[in-house]
Amino acid sequence: MALADIIKRTCKKLGENNKPTYVVMAIATVKGICRPTFTMMDKTENPETKKYTALREGLTEVIAIPAYWASGELAGALAKKAFSKDKALAGRAEKNLMFIGVCAAALFIIPGLCSVAIKPIMDAMGLKAPDDKKHPKQPEQKPEMAYIPASVNHVSYKNVFPQMRSFTSRPQTGLRVGGL
To answer: Domain limits at 61?
Structure first.
């Protein structure tokens, strides 16, 4: 048996049995492993901040995996029940509603669960968000506006905005409408 046949059969099997829930759960699992690992590998960050951030990212994915599974399977079960009379349509509807279920989990369910659960879990573990003494927050500054004195005539914008020297909002020749 050639390697090409093994790859072909594997791809065919995955294509036949692929559910959106499984794909999203696989992605969440990889994120749950890799993101905390990469956070802990950051040599420039404060160790307390790294520990807090890595644990928070890991907890987010621990919450996400069952939420994805439950919402996808629940949506798929609803599709099976709603389209039980038409078997051809039921299979497609199941996959489509599973996809919608995992999207709803990502948009609404997981952020809601994380906002309710992560802070109490972190507090129970005795971890608080560390103060970032290394990078204090700068006060927000408003962008400075260019000062244009009242005595300046209408073409002085070229001095204030030099990049607009070639800009014109009206035709250079022909009929001018509206007194412009």
So the answer is: 10-124
